[in-house]
Amino acid sequence: MIAPAILVQFTLVLYPLVIALISSFQSWYMPHPEQRHFVGFQNYIRLITSPEVANAAWVTLKFMVFSVIGTTLLGLVIGLLLASEFRGVSVFRSLLIIPMMVTPAVSALLWIQMWHGSYGVINAILGPLGLAVEDWKSFPTTALWTIIIPDVWQWTPFVMLVVLGGMQSLPVDVFEAARVDGAYGWKMFRRITFPLLLPFLSTAVLFKLVYTLRVYALAWLITRGGPGTSTEIMSIKITITAFRELQIGKASALSFLVLIVLIIVGTLLYRLFNKIRELGYS
Amino acid sequence: MKGRKFKTVVIIFFLCIITALFMFPIYWFITTSLKQTKDIWVMPIKWFFTPTLNNYAEVVKNAPLPFLNSVIVTVFSILISFVFGLPCAYALGRFSIKYKENIAVTFLSQFMLPPMALIVAFYIFFNSLHLLGTRFNLILAYVTFDLPLVVWLMKDYFEGIPKEIDEAALVDGCSPFGSFFRVSLPLAKPGVMVAGIMCFIFTWNEYLYAIILTKRNTQTLPLLLGLFYRQYEVAWGSIAALGIITILPVVFFGILIQRRLVRGLTLGALKE
Q1: Which residues of A touch B114 (CB under 8 A)?
Q2: Residue A279 vs residue B147, higher pLDDT
Q3: Which residue of B has its CA nearest to A96?
Q4: Strand (E) positions, B92-232?
Q5: pTM of this prediction?
Q6: Do the chains contact at A109 and B180, CB–CB below 8 Å?
Q7: What tens digit of pLDDT does each residue of A156-190 get?
Q8: So what's the pLDDT on residue B1?
């Protein structure tokens, strides 16, 4: 009963990956497939020493770090607020998960309209406060934020739901005992709530990282990697290399570099988070 | 008691502000979809306007094919994933099989692979099979993350159904397939629904595979949105209408399973 599923999965993923691995050692310019030839590690060496790839890695890292920090902080606060019980709280809970469902392409367009320099609603609101920016998307300093903020808007509900679920699964008597001992407000949060929530938060962060690596439509539609290459995250870099520069061999090599880095970083992070989870339970 | 009541009022106050902020982008898009073009590109912004459904009419005229493509691709990739994934999940959750955990974790890791690491490989693969631009190659690409999702989520679900029920069926002379179809599967209906909706959300919203692997007549709804934006940069009313139509089914299904969403998105790492 297992074999068919494994077979399907392996032919669809492993086999293409093997072909791509072979082509990653080739020079392969799409319009001239007949000139395809082996070049050894040349693709890899060029990529590792390329400032463009370093830039893409750096932009991706910045995007991930800010996006994860933003979603985690906001999600934690909102999740804690939602964890209180009162009539009608479920309305808030249902409404606040909606951004998470929004198709990334739709999310991109919705924010493009709002960021618009002359007619966007954001400038219309910030203008009277003297905070309007001529065109948010076309300044290197603000461009990255025009994709980070939509991403945070979309994924805060995820962290929020995880925190809410965590709070609901924690035993009530722990909080009551702490209250009897005189823990309130900030002290309660630091000493009791936060340590108990830590395993949930670390799971949320881990999955947020996984989902952040999937981001493509949002960034591509809003900034197209620009201005210059200031918002060129790795997924955009790979597609540009493959389908605009048409360097299939080079793009395959870049995909494998990404895979290798992900496997190494992923394993390390997974171990780290498991430690945090154990800490939280002990 | 008085202190607690005050605290609740403060919490509700803050939640109202937060909800308003988070809902605003969607509210704004909905109003755009109901505006005439002359009401969209004006300064100062028009908060009040005469609503029109023209944009929706326009979109309904233009979008049937991408809509149909999206439905076909989503439905078939989920179906294929269920046909192969459910028996696999059942076996992994029920029987003692060698390397069971390793197999399960392998499926999990396949789901976590980011599309950017696979897209070039898929392009080469489907190109060599002359499948590029068809709906079929997109369906297969989507199966690569829907299938692991089904296996992993449903394995979890089958493990939660008491073993004795199948054992009784097996003793009564049912084959493993028989007990799967007649006993476990009917009991697992709620789990199947959740797994199906999770797959739906990921598949319906996908963009990267779709843009590379489809041609003009096989493109899906999210692609049409990007195209609309590039071609008619001022027709924001239609763009917004199309956007709202695109997200409606996802939001509907998402809210339907909101209690189980966390478990789905963290792949069972957190129970609700």
Answers
A1: 210, 213-214, 235, 258, 262
A2: B147
A3: B19
A4: none
A5: 0.90
A6: no
A7: 999 999 999 888 888 888 888 888 887 777 888 88
A8: 53
Helix (H, G, I), strand (E, B) or coil at B214: strand
Q: Which of A214, A250, A257, A267 to mutate to test the interface with B (most CBs of B within 10 A)?
A: A214
Q: What span, in angstroms and rounded, lies between the C-alpha atoms of B228 and A166?
A: 42
Question: What average pLDDT does the segment A2-16 reach?
Answer: 90
Q: Environment class of residue A33 by beta-carbon count within 10 Å: exposed (0-12), middle (13-18) or buried (19+)?
A: exposed
pLDDT at residue B271, rounded to an integer: 61
For residues A207-236, average pLDDT: 92
Q: Is A29 helix (H, G, I), strand (E, B) or coil?
A: strand
Q: Would you call A86 exposed, middle or buried from its count of C-beta atoms within 10 A (0-12, 13-18, 19+)?
A: middle
Pick the CATH number of A3-281 from 3.30.930.10, 3.30.360.10, 3.30.450.20, 1.10.3720.10: 1.10.3720.10
| CA distance, residue A133 to nearest chain B CA (Å) | 15
Sign of CA dihedral B249, B254, B257, B258: negative
Q: Do the Cβ atoms of B116 and A106 come within 8 Å?
A: no
Residue ranges covered by each domain of chain A = 3-281
pLDDT of residue B2: 62
Q: Quote the DSSP letter at residue B248.
A: H
Provide the pLDDT for residue A237.
95
Taking the C-alpha atoms of residue A126 and residue B101, their distance in angstroms, rounded to an integer, is 54
Question: A213 and B114: CB-CB below 8 Å?
Answer: yes
Q: What is the mean pLDDT of residues A103-119?
A: 90
Rounded alpha-carbon distances, angstroms, from residue A264 to A36, A59, A177, B259? 31, 19, 43, 34
Give the pLDDT confidence score for residue B233 in this predicted structure.
Answer: 66
A-B interface: how many C-beta pairs under 8 angstroms? 249
Structure-token pair, residue B124: 């080469």
Q: Cβ contacts (< 8 Å) between B22 and chain A: which residues?
A: 95-96, 98-99, 153, 156-157
Rounded to 5 degrees, what are φ and ψ at A27? -90, 120
Residue B71 banded pLDDT, cuts 50, 70, 90: very high
Shortest Cα distance, chain A CAs vs residue B243, angstroms = 5
Q: Is the torsion defined by CA of B115, B120, B126, B129 positive or negative?
A: negative
A2, A17, A258: residue with CB nearest B97:
A2
Q: Between chains, do B225 and A105 touch, taking CB under 8 Å as contact?
A: yes
Distance CA A242, CA A248 (A): 5
Q: Is B12 on the interface with A (CB under 8 A)?
A: yes
